[in-house]
Design goal:
Blueprint: H1 2-9, H2 17-28, H3 35-48, H4 55-66, H5 74-81
Helix pairs in contact: 2-3, 3-4
Length: about 80
Amino acid sequence: MFNNLFGRCGKDVNINQDEIFNIADQASGMDLKNEEQVRALIQSVGSIVGRKVDKSVEDQLTKMILNGEVPTDMDQLLKMMM
């Protein structure tokens, strides 16, 4: 599953698997109903892929996460990201 994820995303951006796993580990202990923590997580992911997250995109992602609207199915999540 993760090889598929990195294979699909890695072609477009230069990502380090260890950094992604580190953020995933940190996120698993976060309160995803806490707006500050969610925004920090979004910015962390943006910095890993070397892209500045636009304020409107950050707002939209934050709202989705706080409202529990982010898909938990990996295929759906990949479709959102691509």
